């Protein structure tokens, strides 16, 4: 890929993100688009986002079951570069998970799931952190500094869109929006299980099936997931 092509691709991503940030936009869909965009644009193996809600951090978007497994372990053990990125408001890069010290549980589970390097980026605006974007790689530190900066810029755009000026001033509104996203993710996970069981397929394929149906019908991802769980529709 030429440099010009990469610049054009990133520009299109920023335009797409900006177009998504309209009134009543679906936060879960926005963040899912963000992780999938990072995976394809920067050619990383997987990506995931932890989001802060009323009860602390929770997983809200991921591109694979492997990355989901690692992030859930992070939440259970309360250690990992993504937590450091969230709490400290800075990017944390681990170019080789087989080397170095700290986060023993995270390193072990990440390696078991095929990841060898990780970049954790904060989702933060001014003094307010709302989560962390983690990029997983199966090769050693293939991301350039420019790619990391670009990924951080994408996370920043999404963060600004979620918070916006009015919710920055109204902290309670922020918490409600983030909690809604986390509650929605529970419904989506339940729907993935239903679809996976119905079609005897993996969770990743089940999620792609649900998203495709939501887009084809022009319905919100959460709305479709609720209907699947209630057995109102079959996808």
From TrEMBL:
The lineage of its organism: Bacteria, Bacillati, Actinomycetota, Actinomycetes, Micrococcales. InterPro entries: ANTAR, CheY-like_superfamily, GAF, GAF-like_dom_sf, GAF_ANTAR, WH-like_DNA-bd_sf. It comes from the Bacteria. Residues 168-229 form the ANTAR domain. SMART domains: ANTAR (SM01012), GAF (SM00065). This is ANTAR domain-containing protein. One of its GO terms (molecular function) is RNA binding. SUPFAM superfamilies: CheY-like, GAF domain-like. It holds the Pfam family ANTAR. Keywords: Kinase, Transcription, Transcription regulation, Transferase.
């Amino acid at each position: 890929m030429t440099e010009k092509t990469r610049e054009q691709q990133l520009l299109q991503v920023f335009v797409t993100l900006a177009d998504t940030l309209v009134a009543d936009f679906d936060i879960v869909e926005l963040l899912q688009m963000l992780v999938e965009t990072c995976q394809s644009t920067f050619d990383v193996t997987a990506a995931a986002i932890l989001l802060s809600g009323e009860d602390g951090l929770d997983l809200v978007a991921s591109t694979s079951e492997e990355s989901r497994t690692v992030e859930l372990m992070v939440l259970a053990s309360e250690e990992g570069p993504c937590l450091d990125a969230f709490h400290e408001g800075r990017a944390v890069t681990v170019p080789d998970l087989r080397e170095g010290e700290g986060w023993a549980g995270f390193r072990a589970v990440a390696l078991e799931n095929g990841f060898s390097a990780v970049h954790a980026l904060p989702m933060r605006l001014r003094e307010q952190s709302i989560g962390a974007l983690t990029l997983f790689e199966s090769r050693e530190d293939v991301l350039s500094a420019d790619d990391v900066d670009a990924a951080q810029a994408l996370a920043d755009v999404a963060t600004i869109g979620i918070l916006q000026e009015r919710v920055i001033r109204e902290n309670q509104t922020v918490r409600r929006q983030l909690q809604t996203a986390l509650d929605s993710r529970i419904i989506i996970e339940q729907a993935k299980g239903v679809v996976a069981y119905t079609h005897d397929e993996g969770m990743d394929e089940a999620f792609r099936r649900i998203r495709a149906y939501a887009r084809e019908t022009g319905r919100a991802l959460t709305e479709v997931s609720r209907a699947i769980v209630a057995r109102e529709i079959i996808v």
